[in-house]
Amino acid sequence: MGTLFFRKPLSMVFALTIVLSNCGGSPDATDSPEASSPAASSEQQALVFGLGGQPANLEPGNITDNNSIYVHEQIYDRLVHFEPGTTSPVPGLATEWSASEDGLTWTFTLREGVTFHDGTPFNAEAVRVNVERWWDPASPTGYRDAGRGYEIWPGLFGGFKGDEASSLVSLNVVDDYTIEFVLNQPFAAFPVAIGSGYFGIASPTAIEEAGPDYGTPGSTAVGTGPYVLDEWRSGDRVILSANPEYWDGAPAEEQLVVRFITDPSTRLAELRAGSIDFTVELAPDQLQEIEGDDNLEAVFRESFNVGYLGLNTGFEPLADVRVRKAIALAINRPEIVSAFWGELGVSDPHFLPPSMENFNANDLEVYPYDPEQAKQLLSEAGYADGFDLEMYYMPVSRPYFPTPKPIAEAFAADLSAIGINVSLQTKDWAVYIEDSKKPPGFQSFMLGWTGDYGDPDNFYYYHFGPGGTTDIGEWKSDRVIELLNQARAEDDQGSREQAYAEVDKILYDEVVRIPIVHSQPLLAQRTNIQGWNPSPLGSEPFNTVSKE
Questions:
Q1: Residue-wise pLDDT tens digits, 302-339
Q2: Dihedral of the alpha carbons of 403, 407, 408, 411, in degrees to the nearest 10
Q3: H or E segment at 266?
Q4: Who contacts 493 (Cβ-Cβ below 8 Å, separation ≥6)?
C-alpha cells in the first residue's frame, strides 16, 4: 500500500464521552521585493511569522481556511479553547459547560471581567449577537446582502435558522454570563464544534460600526484575544500588538507580524536569513536543508488531515462511477506520496486520518495502480477515446498539499496515460474556495481538510452531510446522511464505530473525494524561538512564543 511512517508518534484519544476538538485563505500572498525586504524599524524586534497565504478575511464565522484561522487565533477567543498541542478542550471565554439529561440543551457559563479590545464588555449578549450572525439569515448585523455566506455554519451544524436540518433550534440568554444552545438532537461534540477556530467572538460594537466592511483590509477586527490588530497591509502582512490586559496573561512579545509568503522555498530562505522567525507548511524535501542549518530547528505538527482530489459528478463523464473509479486506478497514489512527502506522508484508502483508524472499515485497500483496468472501465462507460478534464490546484501551500502545482502535474501525467487530457487551472485562493462551491463548480480539484475537533463527525459531516457536496455536483447518499446523523446522536462507542465504518465503505465505492495523503506537516523555527507548541488542529495562538 505504500504506507509510510511518521517522525513523531500520535497521541490523540477519541471517545464520545471525552469531547475533543481545521483546511484550505485568500488572494495570493506576495513574494515581491517589498514583502521580502526588512520590516520597518518599529517591526524589526517583533516576532515575525511566515504564513503560506493571506487570510480570506478577519470576520469570525465567515471563513473556512487555515490562513484566516491563524490570524483569528491571535485576535479572538472562542467559548472553548484547546490544551496547547492537543485536541483536548479547556475553558476559553466559557469557564464551564454541560448538557441537559436528554442531551438537547447545552449551557455555557461565561468568563466574567473580560472586555473586547475596544472596551466593549464581553457577556452573553455579545455571544448571542455573534452566533445569530452566523446562524440566523435575518440577523441585522449578518450583512448577507453584502455577500456574507457563513458557509461553515451549515457545514458543521446542518443548516441556518429555519432550515429543517439545522442542529440549533434556539439560543437563549439566561443572564449576563449564562447562555443556552437548544439542539434538535443530541450532539456530544457540540462544545468543541462551537469552539473550533472559525468561531471567534467579535465585539458587537465594532461589527455594527464597521458594517459590511468588518474584517476586511482597511477596516477593523476586534476580539478579546492576546493580540490587537494594528494594520492589515493587503497582500503583504498583518501587524498586531500585545493586549496587556489579556485575561490569560499578557503575550510574551509586544508585537507580532504575520507575513504572507506563498512559496515554501521563499519562506525557508527568509527563515534562514532571519527576516522571519518561524513558519509553516514547508515542503518535505526541505527537511534536509533545515536540519543542515545550525540556526534552524525542524518542528512537526501531529498529522490530523487529509488531502484529496474532488470529482464533480455534475460533469457528465464524472457522473458515471466507472469513470471515477478509472481515475482512482490511474493515479499512482503510493508513488506520488513517496515522491512528494517521503516519510512525512501516508497513502491509505480512508478519508479519516490514521489516528481515527478505529472508525474505518477494516477490509479496504488503496485502489491499485492499474492503468489497463482503468482504460477498460472508461471503455465500458463509453469513453474509450478518453475526454478532456479541467483540474484545479491551489495557488498556496497547504498542510496536506505543500507543493500543489507539481503534485497536480503528477496527477495529470498519470491520467494522460489512460486518455484523459487534463488542463491544469488555478485561481486566487479566496476565489478558488468560493468558485469551487458556486455551480457548476470545478470539474475536478485539489483540496483538503485539517480537523477542527477530534471526532470523525468533523471530517465527514462538512464534506458529505446536508449542503456539504455543492462542490461535487450535489452528490448525495441518503444512507450516508442517515448514518452521520445517527452517529452524532449515538452514545455507544461501538455503534458509532460501526456507523462510520459503513460510511467509509460507501465513500470508497462512490469515489467522489479520492483521499491522496495524510501528511505530517513540516514547520520550522529559528533556534532563538521558544514556546511554540503547534496544535494538531492546524493553528494556534502565539501568546506564549518568545524570541531571545
A1: 999 999 999 999 999 999 999 999 999 999 999 999 99
A2: -170
A3: helix 264-273
A4: 15, 16
